[in-house]
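Lecture notes, part 5. Sequence design as translation. It can be helpful to think of inverse folding as translation between two languages: the language of shapes and the language of residues. The source text, in structure tokens, appears below.
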């Protein structure tokens, strides 16, 4: 999920940077390619987020955790993982 978000940000930054100097008229092939990459990166980010939410829903049910009110499953899962996941690779 993080990798997809970084990719989306990088492509968006490149597109923003290059669009500053665009002349009126049809877009250059370079800009068209950047827009296509941006669309692909957004789609990958959305798919990664959706897969994370599905997985988080599964382990929340398995462990019998309750998601607090006014907190999304995604935020709860990320915070739980940061607080409870082993950091050195040991169980």
């Amino acid at each position: 999920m993080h990798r997809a978000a970084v990719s989306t940000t990088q492509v968006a930054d490149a597109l923003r940077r290059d669009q500053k100097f665009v002349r009126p008229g049809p877009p250059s092939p370079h800009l068209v390619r950047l827009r296509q990459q941006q669309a692909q990166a957004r789609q990958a980010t959305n798919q990664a987020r959706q897969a994370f939410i599905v997985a988080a829903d599964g382990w929340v049910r398995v462990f019998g955790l309750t998601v607090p009110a006014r907190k999304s499953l995604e935020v709860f899962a990320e915070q739980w993982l940061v607080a409870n996941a082993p950091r050195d690779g040991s169980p």
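The translated text above is only one of many valid answers, since several sequences can fold into similar shapes. The mean pLDDT is 85.
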